[in-house]
Amino acid sequence: MRRPRPFKDLSQRFLVRRYGLSVNWNCTYREIAQVTGISEARVRTICLRHGYKLASDPHKPLGIMPVDSYMALRNPFMRNMY
Predict the structure, then answer these.
(1) Would you say 33 and 43 are in contact if contact means Cβ atoms under 8 Å apart?
(2) What's this model's pTM, rounded to 2 decimal places?
(3) Counting CB atoms within 10 angstroms of each CB, which of 8, 44, 46, 55 has the fewest?
(4) Domain locations in the chain?
């Protein structure tokens, strides 16, 4: 079980929020992690938990749908949405 560490959590949240506000949230999880020294997974958790909206990460690989799954979509409008 994880031991509660409220001051560490608050300080990490402060670092993420301070950097995000300084660039008007025009950044990625990776950039915040590099600047603050917090892991990218932890930055993502903090942002999602507190509703911080970030720009999309251009280095993140795109989700690719296999062809058979794409063809199995019954509704043609769903194919257009992908």
Answers:
(1) yes
(2) 0.64
(3) 8
(4) 7-57
